[in-house]
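Case study 2.
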Amino acid sequence: MKKYLYIILVGITVVFLMVILMFSKKPKKNIPSFKERKGTIALSGEWLNTKQAIESLLKDIELNPENYKAKLQLSQAYIQEARITGDHGYYDGAAIELLDDVIKNEPKNFDALCCKATVLLSQHHFSDGLLIAQQALPLNPNNAFIYGLMCDAYVELGRYPEAVKVCDKMISIRPDIRSYSRVSYLREIHGDLNGAIEVAKLAVASGYPGLEQSEWTRMILAHLYENKGQLDSAEIQYKLALAERPSYPFAIAGLSNIAKLKGNYKEAIAGYEKAKTMIIEFSFADELTDLYVLNNEMDKAKKSATEVIDLLSPMSDIDENTSGHGHYADKELAYAYLKLPDLENALKHALLEYDRRPNNIDVCETVAWVRYKKREYYEANTMINKALKTNCQNPSLLCHAGLIKIKAGEKMKGEEFIKKALQANHYLDIELRKEVAPYMIAK
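Prediction:
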């Protein structure tokens, strides 16, 4: 009897221990998977290789959930997928989830910290991105990339002297496509457009033809040519990008913008509509809004403007500090609301962005332009002076400054800004050209 009682007690103990283990065992955490690409971007050999690499990493992580090297590599693949597909809403979140797990277990993992800073900057969380980059810096102070991340953050926060300093450090360590691109942009916003073009050429030449990063850099060069009114040179770069990376949506959009500037609205609309089907990118719909207006398709214009707002802020009515895709996009939303026109919401979003980064010249220009549209000329003038502090010679900025100063009572100075803009670039945005035309005639 005692023997049987002992066996029963042992059995109960074993069952009890099994129950404890079952409930104490951590549930298996699902690893975010990838999405199948769609359309033309799914047809390249690049995608087949990328897909195979991602599938292999997912298997490695499934076999060993503590394989943090594989999780880091998977996050890097997802960061690149976000760039290529435009699906930042999904891939940024997936990358952050993986990176947080890596950093929690390896808090001094330099590459993981750099990747997290990259995603935060992509989401326009510039202050947060800078903090992570500064945290990573002491771990590898001779790494060029970390200085590039800090440069990006400083630029977006309007801390331009600091941006120049870390950019100089970056290029002294590694002169390559990434460092040349940043030097080019800093030269551009400090008024040296010719110098910006020269360095952008170096950036393009140092990239591997056909890679997404290389052809995106070529888009920067083409855009600089556009700002100088050299449309033929810009067109060449867009066509080269398509030769190296067929069906590249940003090159298709670039050629469409050339058509727009030349007055070929139907051709431009067709191009942007094609690009829009290829990836998730709000700027394509934003450009279509303007083109539909120019082509007298007002219903389509209103629908397109609303679509841009939906893309940028699907949760804006719930929480002004949260967007459905994790991004801060209030600067872009301000311009989108201007096109409805909804001046009150435009100002609200412009000021939300200004509260985050009051020293950034693009943000100051946005607030100034919205104030101008609201006929608040004194406030607009104060803000446009802040936007001009780096001596940026962007023709659109100069036209905005000119129009604002004329309305604020500084007529001669305003007309001088407009004259300088038109001398630099005869192919200004059509609507802006119409707005400045009366003052040039009067001159």
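Residues 2-24 form the longest helix (23 residues).
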